[in-house]
């Protein structure tokens, strides 16, 4: 029997052994040279900690809030596509794990369980991630369904005007299955003899003309708070604050879109400064350790989202695997806070990390 994983990274190998290579590559891979994929993680290694001592750390409180919703720790589940390729229970298993860990799952627009199935299996706070298709009515229907089913916020992903070039998927002839939320709305089948059908499907359907002005359209069809996911510059963070969204996610889509986009942790501080505290900043990309969560919080993130580790946990051990992944990150964060002299989340400050910039 293989040894039980002792950290989140060890779930990756278990996932690789558990699922077909084509699906594993889809989950693990990034765009083109995968430079940003490696950088997302490497950039964390270039940040060190500045622990403080002789602080009472006999009790550590990880709890925090996101958009006013309380969660047990500043670690959320990022929207990722097609969970049934990892495990037969798909997003329902992931959502149950999120509820058990008392955190928020962002359900992907491109999920293999429906908005309704996930809602009925998970009473915890859930957010819904949105892509806007050329057919705006498709987005509108999904937004209404998310509202009706108690999702508490919309996470509008803005870094996919077209799909990034993921070469592993092209080589594997990766075919996306039917996207359950879209059943009956229009055909999700795309002819494909060779290569990945996902690129063609995405490029045929996604609205590449979406602009800042369109946030007003989205606001006109929903009362839910809107979070924009995929911000990498101070300039865009200022625009997001100007259009009055409820929050942003610093993200390069797990390095699956634009290769040579910066490691997300390397631009977090720029984005946080630009917002001047007007809107909350969430973060994702390369979070694999409690110390990574701590670093992101120190640089101004309110919470982090975790993508691949959750899928690897799901592939390896279903709902229990996802739970374990979140618990591991929570336990590591708790220890990091204790050893850094930060009993509460709000005690984690900029002075607790040393970045490359500080060394210049
Ligand atoms: C994603 N991501 C993503 N984002 C989104 O807004 N909608 C989606 O459907 C997906 N799908 C998706 C599938 C897979 C397999 C991956 C790995 C990622 C991006 C995701 O939300 C998040 O930004 C990254 O996964 C964060 O990086 P890490 O944690 O995977 O390093």
From TrEMBL:
Superkingdom, natural source: Eukaryota
Name of the protein this chain belongs to: Uncharacterized protein
